[in-house]
Amino acid sequence: MPQVATVADWAPHVGVGILTRLVSFARSALIMTVVDNPLTWKLGFRGTNEKDDVEGPFYILGSPKRQIDDGKAVLASAEYMNKYGPFLFVIDVKDEKGEPVPNATLDWWQADSEGNYYFATWTLRGKVTTDANGRAEVLSIRPGDYGAPMLGRRAGHIHLIVSDAKGRHRTMTTQAYVCPANKSEHMLADIANYARTSRPGNMMTCYSIPAANGGEKYWDLPELSAEDTTMAERVKRWNAQLKDHGVNREIIAVGQHELKLNKV
């Protein structure tokens, strides 16, 4: 049974069973062939929500809960945060009227900052539930670009399947992109554009914290404004916990993103 992250044990390394992997790979092949076939996008079966995106081939069924507090989760282990630097993501889930969707589940998976996915363990995979304000704060690392020159490249992104606990909204499959300098042009050459048009609206708005990165902007991202006291307080609270969990670095960047779910 997948282990749940606890305050004492952030994002533990737990193996994924071979049967789970085989079933997941078979399911992904079906999704890529049928659900995310370019024709389904052109005919309007996919893309009814402006934030919809392809699922991709790397989803693993049954990821563990990573919740450590109400609306808060940790996806990356201390090892990965020490190596790549902690990155705080804040995601708001709302309905079509702009009202928060509490208790929505975000099924999250991503690559590490070098573009590597993990399949034998639950590394950088897990679930978090939004709080009463429809918000989730997730401590992880920046997802890196990946691909090959002859096969195409993918801009760094987080995969999300977002579902409403009460079933009043349609489940959304989306991706949230982290682009250098917050320039969506970085997504124009994304190989996923073969299936659907480029999704610049899926780019997260990110800010660097130079004080935690040797005085340098991270990923050429704009510096977090001193006037954003709310985000600064979030960063301060998370930083206070990092050393207690073996992380010797402070948060180097933050990302914000809003998702709106369609009614059933």
Which characteristics define this entry?
single chain, 264 residues, alpha+beta, six-stranded mixed β-sheet, 17% helix
Can you characterise this structure?
It is a single chain. The chain is 17% helix and 23% strand. A hairpin with an 8-residue loop joins strand 9 and strand 10. The mean pLDDT is 94. The two termini are 32 Å apart. The protein contains four helices and twelve strands, in the order ααββαβββββββββαβ. The chain has 264 residues and is an alpha+beta fold. The protein has a six-stranded mixed beta sheet, with helices on one face. The protein has a four-stranded antiparallel beta sheet with strand order 5-4-9-10, with no helix packed on it. Strands 7-8 form a two-stranded antiparallel ribbon. It is globular, with a radius of gyration of 18 Å.
What topology does this entry show?
Elements: H1 18-35, H2 38-42, E1 67-69, E2 72-74, H3 78-84, E3 87-94, E4 105-110, E5 125-129, E6 135-140, E7 146-148, E8 152-154, E9 157-163, E10 172-177, E11 205-208, H4 229-242, E12 253-260
Parallel strand pairs: 2-6, 3-12
Antiparallel strand pairs: 1-2, 3-6, 4-5, 4-9, 7-8, 9-10, 11-12
